[in-house]
Design a protein that fits this description.
CATH topology of the largest domain: Phosphoribosyl-aminoimidazole Synthetase, Chain A, domain 2
CATH class of the largest domain: Alpha Beta
Number of helices: 14
CATH architecture of the largest domain: Alpha-Beta Complex
Number of strands: 15
Strand content: 15-25%
Length: about 450
């Protein structure tokens, strides 16, 4: 939309911008700046009348106006329907159907090893565990970073994306009660760009340091015909495979959950590495925001908020396991959100009585496209990156340990006997079964 057309819209429909806070703490509102522009005032005159106001502030006001108009238009277009992860391009239902065929083919390979190397779990848990003998198991898991890589390309910032790769893998390995030991990476690139690879490596090294693991090797593949991205020459994919060690008689699978066990949620650092396709669809395509655009709601640019590294929970969770607290279940909250609790191996329901305030980025996404609460909690972590289920009486110690490692934690709810495995989000009136949340009738 051209600026003149935008200013016409401001004059015709000022309610779109009502209530917008002041600019960078200055005593002038965004609405006032937009109104002056709509009345024909020049940028130079506005800057002269408001000491401290900078040209970038004017640009930020115009960018906000573009976004507000886009949201208003999107609200009109989406009246009666809600944007979903599927309509953004990630069909999770179809993925499940496709996955079932893949598993049907590879599951029989579990029978090919007995004794040494035998898989102790079926496919589908956060990580599997291979029998090493002498009551020792090798936990193994693999994951990537997804389309968060595209945001890194849009921002031309790659130094933290490796942290996400480490986090997505070691947090899964933790979920069987294992201590992560090592990770190997696979980087597929459009071109062997020295600057890009060194920046990615900085994040991998930092993530390894936080997680207490090593990176003994990896693979770089130049596949220009396959890998495409936002920035020519900088397109890449990043995947890791992590291993850890666990005593077979101490694996934590959620198999002993009972009525009244306590669910503790560990705070996420933000969006982490799931739901970025929907986030990009809403913020960049729908609201026409720029990754480099500063947001007062976020206190940083849109891109910075989306690139906030996934939190690594290794040190605090290992401390919990070593503290004597009866830890009965561990769940990494990624895609599917709190529905990941259903991966634990007990026939119970998870009653969530209290939810933390989600990070501002989630509200920006939800309001930007009128997304339902059910879809938000199905797609994003909504402020909770990891769950620890403990016996009654252990919650306060777990929370204390999390805080001692610089994290936030709180009791979310409890487990309850049930004939149906489900997650109940009581504050939202939602019940989650399988891979979806529905309103409670």
């Amino acid at each position: 939309m051209a600026d003149q057309e935008l200013l016409r819209r401001i004059t015709a429909d000022p309610e779109i911008f009502a209530g917008k806070p002041i600019v960078r703490g200055l005593r002038v509102s965004v609405e006032s700046v937009l109104s002056l522009l709509a009345q024909g005032e020049t940028v130079e005159r506005i800057l002269a009348d408001y000491p401290g106001l900078e040209p970038e502030d004017i640009r930020a006001c115009l960018a906000y106006a573009h976004a507000a108009v886009a949201r208003d238009s999107l609200d009109t277009a989406n009246a009666g329907r809600s944007l979903t992860y599927s309509s953004a391009g990630v069909d999770t239902d179809r993925e499940e159907r496709a996955l079932s065929g893949l598993i049907r083919q590879v599951a029989p390979t579990l029978e090919l090893r007995r004794g040494l190397g035998e898989a102790r779990l079926p496919i589908g848990f956060f990580a599997n565990v291979l029998d090493l003998g002498n009551n020792l198991g090798l936990a193994i898991s693999t994951d990537g970073v997804g389309t968060k890589l595209l945001v890194a390309q849009m921002m031309d910032r790659y130094a933290t994306i490796g942290i996400d790769c480490i986090a997505m893998n070691v947090n899964d390995v933790l979920c069987v009660g294992a201590e992560p030991l090592s990770l190997v990476d696979y980087i597929a690139v459009q071109e062997a760009n020295p600057h890009l690879l060194e920046e990615i490596a900085k994040g991998l090294a930092r993530g390894a340091e936080v997680a207490g693991i090593n990176i003994p090797g990896g693979e770089i593949a130049q596949v220009k015909e396959i890998v495409q991205g936002y920035k020519p020459g900088y397109a890449f994919d990043l995947v890791g495979t992590a291993v850890g060690l666990v005593r077979l008689d101490r694996m934590i699978l959620g198999q002993n959950l009972q009525d009244g066990d306590v669910i503790v949620g560990l705070r996420s650092s933000g969006i982490h590495s799931n739901g970025l396709t929907l986030a990009r669809k809403v913020l960049f395509d729908g609201c026409h925001l720029s990754p480099s655009q500063y947001s007062e709601e976020l206190g940083e640019t849109i891109g910075e908020a989306l690139l906030e590294p996934t939190r690594i929970y290794v040190r605090e969770v290992l401390a919990m396991l070593q503290s004597g607290v009866e830890v009965k279940g561990l769940a990494h909250i990624t895609g599917d959100g709190l529905l990941n609790l259903l991966r634990l191996d007990s026939e119970v329901e998870y009653v969530i009585d209290s939810l933390p305030e989600p990070h501002p980025i989630f509200a920006l996404i939800q309001q930007g496209a009128g997304i339902s609460d059910g879809e938000m909690f199905r797609t994003f972590n909504m402020g909770i990156g990891f769950c620890v289920v403990v016996a009654p009486g252990g919650a306060e110690q777990v929370i204390s340990i999390a805080r001692s490692h610089g994290g936030e934690a709180a009791v979310l709810g409890h487990t309850a006997k049930s004939s149906e495995r489900k997650v109940l989000l009581m504050p939202k009136g939602l019940a989650g079964i399988g891979h979806e949340f529905h309103a409670v009738r």
